[in-house]
Amino acid sequence: MEAKLAAYRSKKRREAMVETAKNSIKEVLSWQRSSSPVEDKDDLESMISEESIDFSPPPPSILCSWTMCCLYLVLWVTMYIIAIQIEFGAVFFIISALIFIIVNTRSGPKKKGEVSAYSVFNPDCQSIDGTLKAEQFEREIRYGGLSVH
């Protein structure tokens, strides 16, 4: 039984290390900072009870994130100046803007419990805050803007 438990714990530790490495690479490449909480209570207890080395990187400090942003900005400005010198500045600017949009757009699946911007995909067709619905628009036309609460 102890051997099975040790094998299970080492498997979970390896999976956690791989997931941590994937998240760190994703964070570096997309400038997004996120942390994934441990969802399984048994895994948490096994990690706490086990005397192992914590391989997860420390949470990034504000200074580190500002430093990385400044370094990215300095690199981009340097490359932009070089592109202007070789008369390629407008194309470089447009391509870099498109890359910025693509990198900072979420392309992964939505989180559990997160509502969609399109109400037809939500449970009971509930809409998000700030959505102008036909019923609200009709009330505003008939009774004025103060009729909406």
TrEMBL record:
This is Uncharacterized protein. It comes from Eretmocerus hayati.
